[in-house]
Amino acid sequence: IYAEAGMLGYRTFGYGHSFGVLSHYYGREAGLEIREDIDTVLEPGMVVSIEPMLTVPEGMPGAGGYREHDILVVGENGATNITGFPVGPEANVIAG
Predict the structure, then answer these.
(1) For residue 74, what pLDDT is reported?
(2) Diameter of the chain by CA atoms?
(3) What torsion do the CA atoms of 8, 11, 16, 19 make, to the nearest 10 degrees?
(4) Does the pTM of the predicted model rise above 0.70?
């Protein structure tokens, strides 16, 4: 999607990653990063972070940053989002 929209250059890191046994950082392998240059194989029982982020430089249309962050449990027929927060830019606006 990023490449098709001409936004791939504004991605600051991969789209997500695996989790280690001890913490967020330990046990992470490059082959389990979720990026277009890695053939990640997702299997039932895996827990992955999905966190696409774009940062568009000041002065360009749409300048600013946006990031979603969800934790998914991979199942036999899809994944379950265990984060529980609403998705989309409307949900990230604090008004008051």
Answers:
(1) 92
(2) 45
(3) 140
(4) no
